[in-house]
User: Which sequence fits this backbone?
């Protein structure tokens, strides 16, 4: 049960990251491939302030967010005017720098030895995990409600205009660079806040948590779920993280020697899925015009198809058993 | 002064895999206009093909290099034919092509892990001898790698800048319609370019494997610096890639000599972001 709560909390962190990436890439067209850098910065900075300087969680979080906001603002100034391929390379470089600094700056991060223990922000004896989960849940729901509002608002339409044709938006008198810079700074900082919350969730930090496969997992979720739909990030995370990390690793009856292969199979399938989605359905599961009714219909159809399949399979098996029984009976008689 | 001399010497020896990778990567980037992250797996597979032939089949190390590099070239052509060409034909945008190539890169890397495991693999190397140059040591393998790289790089240079084929590549990269009207078959040329780039990537992986070991993650670790070097060099400039990779090698060994190797990477990455900003992001 405790493990399930941990997995579900992690699921919420991934949804949060995918929501931020949805604003950056889905709405504004900023291909941020350094998600793990912003998240990892928040995670380690909060951890270091709390463990080495024994700051309280809230103080550490505020300080870390202010510093990350300044860094993101500076980075945004440098790269957001560039073309998309350049932004992608620069953000990857940023996340690689963060990952390297975590290893080299042993005086603060303890390097590969690991940093611990980070305490939960809400400390009520016996209920820390549940409260932390609730905190993340509130966070994600608030972000989701804001995303829905953003999609219908003038700012949201401006963002989409910038993504599709920045020159046109600029020629209508919109300060496109400022919109991009501010949105990038805010969303990158929120990625850092999610990192800080994950620090408390993980309690013990090691450099091998800051790996490119986290960026990759968030990207596959967004692209698979539908990068232009407000519900796309959530949908994508349920399909990827929900199925692989929660369902298969917690509930599926997997033998131990096979279990070590599961993470590798997972990343292999993520890669294959990403290739297939980009080739055959670039908009992902949820098109930008998909309505909630469509989603519900889709889910019902999927359930109906599964049920139909199960019933057919059962009846075929039953028939087979019947004929087999009849045959055995005939053999016995003979 | 010794620091400059040493860093030039070590930098040249260490840069040889990077030179090959940057030149091959640049060819693809120049021709098709997108950043191919799966090129890193091309290097990894090159090293693993060599391990397979060398350790698995017991071939001599020097004999195993050639078929391993050719196999890497075939892999590169396969990725082009089955993944990238269909995507280009469907009109996938360059920034999405990169995401596609990252997906392919993960697929190939973890597919490899499923087959050979995540452990390090080692080549059966020929006996190692040390040579002395003005008080600096180099092994025979490092020297052979350097010589092979120089031969390959000169050939590639000649191919791009002095032959008809090079002109065809440049024509195709600059204006595909015009090139087609002039009777160039873009498909044939692309397949040949991806093959050459794949061979270069495979060789680069084999030499990194010689210097250290083969590991499924090695390509991912090398691809970022390869992309950096190629972009800084100016895209489409094989000449620039050659120079930039040598400079990057010398710079890395210089910073490594005066501080830690990981700081060298941090400095290079920061320099990369600033160079991108300076250029105004003209990557293509």
Assistant:
């Amino acid at each position: 049960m405790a493990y399930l709560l941990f997995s579900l909390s992690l699921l919420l962190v991934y949804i949060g990251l995918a929501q931020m990436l949805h604003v950056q890439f889905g709405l504004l067209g900023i291909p941020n491939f350094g998600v793990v850098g912003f998240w990892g910065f928040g995670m380690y900075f909060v951890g270091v302030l709390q463990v080495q300087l024994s700051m309280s969680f809230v103080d550490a979080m505020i300080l870390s967010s202010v510093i990350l906001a300044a860094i993101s603002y500076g980075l945004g100034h440098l790269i957001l005017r560039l073309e998309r391929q350049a932004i992608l390379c620069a953000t990857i470089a940023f996340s690689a720098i963060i990952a390297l600094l975590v290893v080299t700056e042993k005086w603060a991060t303890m390097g590969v030895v690991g940093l611990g223990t980070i305490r939960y922000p809400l400390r009520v004896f016996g209920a820390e995990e549940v409260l932390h989960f609730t905190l993340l849940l509130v966070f994600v729901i608030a972000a989701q409600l804001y995303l829905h509002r953003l999609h219908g608002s003038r700012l949201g339409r401006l963002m989409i205009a910038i993504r599709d044709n920045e020159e046109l938006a600029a020629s209508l008198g919109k300060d496109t660079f400022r919109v991009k810079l501010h949105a990038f700074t805010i969303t990158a900082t929120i990625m850092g806040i999610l990192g800080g919350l994950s620090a408390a969730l993980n309690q013990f930090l090691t450099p091998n948590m800051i790996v490119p496969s986290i960026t990759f997992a968030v990207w596959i979720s967004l692209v698979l779920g539908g990068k232009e739909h407000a519900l796309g990030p959530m949908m994508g995370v349920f399909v990827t993280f929900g199925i692989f990390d929660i369902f298969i690793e917690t509930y599926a009856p997997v033998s131990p020697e096979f279990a070590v292969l599961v993470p590798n199979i997972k990343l292999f399938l993520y890669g294959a899925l990403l290739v297939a989605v980009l080739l055959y359905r670039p908009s992902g599961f949820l098109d930008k015009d998909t309505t909630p009714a469509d989603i519900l219909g889709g889910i019902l159809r999927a359930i109906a198809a599964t049920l139909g399949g199960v019933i057919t399979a059962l009846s075929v098996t039953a028939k087979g058993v019947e004929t087999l029984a009849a045959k055995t009976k005939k053999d016995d008689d003979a | 002064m010794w620091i400059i001399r040493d860093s030039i010497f070590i930098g040249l020896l260490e840069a040889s895999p990077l030179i090959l990778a940057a030149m091959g990567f640049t060819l693809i980037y120049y021709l098709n206009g997108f950043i191919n992250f799966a090129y890193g797996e091309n290097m990894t597979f090159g090293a693993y093909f060599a391990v397979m032939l060398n350790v698995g089949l017991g071939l001599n190390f020097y004999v195993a290099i050639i078929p391993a590099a050719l196999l890497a070239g075939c892999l590169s052509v396969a990725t082009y034919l089955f993944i990238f060409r269909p995507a280009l034909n469907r009109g996938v945008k360059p920034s999405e092509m990169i995401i596609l190539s990252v997906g392919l890169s993960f697929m190939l890397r973890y597919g490899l892990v499923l087959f050979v495991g995540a452990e390090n693999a080692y080549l059966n190397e020929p006996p190692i001898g040390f040579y002395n140059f003005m008080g600096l040591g180099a092994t025979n393998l490092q020297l052979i790698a350097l010589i092979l790289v120089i031969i390959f790089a000169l050939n590639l240079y000649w191919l791009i800048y002095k032959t008809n084929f090079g002109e065809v590549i440049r024509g195709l990269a600059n204006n595909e319609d015009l090139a087609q009207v002039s009777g160039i078959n873009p498909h044939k040329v692309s397949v040949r370019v991806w093959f050459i780039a794949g061979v270069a990537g495979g060789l680069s992986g084999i030499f990194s494997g010689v210097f250290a070991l083969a590991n499924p993650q090695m390509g991912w670790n090398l691809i970022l610096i390869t992309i950096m070097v190629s972009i800084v060099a100016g895209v489409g400039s094989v000449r620039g890639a050659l120079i930039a990779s040598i400079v990057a090698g010398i710079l890395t060994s210089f910073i490594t000599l005066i501080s830690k190797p990981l700081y060298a990477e941090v400095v290079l990455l920061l320099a990369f972001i600033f160079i991108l900003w300076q250029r105004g992001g003209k990557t293509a």
User: Anything to note?
Assistant: Chain A has a mean pLDDT of 86. The interface with chain B takes residues 29, 31, 33, 75, 78-79, 81-90, 92-94, 96-97, 100-101, 103-104, 212-213, 216, 219-220, 223, 261, 264-265, 267-268, 270-275, 278-279, 282 of chain A (CB under 8 Å). The longest helix of chain A spans residues 292-333. DSSP finds 14 helices and no strands in chain A.
